Prior knowledge:
Oligomer: single chain
CATH topology of the largest domain: Alpha-Beta Plaits
Strand order of the largest sheet: 14-15-16-13-18-17
Number of helices: 8
Amino acid sequence: MTDPVSPKSATSDSPSPENTDTPTEAARRSSLSRGLSSTAVLGSGDLAETPIHYGASLREQRVLEEKDGLVDLAHLRVLRLSGPDRLTWLNSITTQKIDNLAPGVSTETLVLDPNGRIEGWLRLVDDGEALWAISDLQTDATLDFLRKMVFMMRVEIEDLSDDYQCFGAITSLPEALPVTRTWSDPWPHIGSGSASYAQIDIGQEVAGTDHPGLETPFVIGIVKRSDLQGLTAKNFDMAGFDAWEALRIAAWRPGRNEIDHKALVGELDLLRTAVHLAKGCYRGQEAVARVHNLGQPPRRLTFVHLDGSGHIAPDPGTEALAEVRGSERPVGTLTSVTVHWELGPIGLAVVKRNLAPEAQLSFEIGDGERVIGAQETIVVPMREHERALPERNKDVDARSQKR
């Protein structure tokens, strides 16, 4: 008897169409996903080449977390930026400070629109000669933006997705996998020049010791497809993308499912790993600084414990309802949902910031039935601002100076 799989994962775990690349451009043939196991179930859309599960999703989660399991992430795109200006150039147009990124150090950065909304998301590791980037959020639009911003800078941008693919693991990748480059997820550590919006560690310089993300250090390996010749899934303890997503959700780690057309970094607690608050200008910086220094993000990411007694879970994208001023009203969206091998049915939701943390959520599943959810606060509803004003930069501000 096999374990149940995550609810409707083969279709509903895919993000909304606005955040994906077209299947013909983004779905790449995985070197380990075809003809390996009669139990392998592939996804749809841009996950059409990605094994969602191998028939036992709950067992696969445990294998991934405890037994050096390997996940085929065939849908991830692999980019390489080369040239002597690659770091300073990307530093000037995205959110993270990477102008002095040391070889082998992993980080992530965001492409924002002028209003601070998230448009692109790159996981980065430099090898001293080139900057490797992994992307699964609007990659084609991100590539178009990057290429338009090169101007006279000495930078070359390559999409190597046809020649390289990605694999995921927890803590470390199997020695038998011929990895070209490894990206180690900085989540949930708070980077230098960054800040946490999470209640569990807000105001601290390091992640709180109880942050669940500390239990599952994600790593992604970039592998040349030609180096995989002779290897199959039978050489590894394989786990499906469902298992990867389940551990991500349990770690409070936002992913592409949490990004919609109005997503802001503060809403998802992404400042801690993807934004440097004291670097030079980039598109969207004013919006980020305004919210951070003067305001509050309009929405917040929350962790949801779902009622599993009915053995039916709502789909990602389901509207979240709660009682507000005496009547039930829409308050947000369930963005990710899974069945975790220890926690049971869980999810992530993006809700209105002023929704009470103790408010019960409900989600319709059809035929008038609903699933109840209890919140566990991730992003704090109200964050205190620094009282002290920044010092005046006398090099650029000549007020009250003798001339």
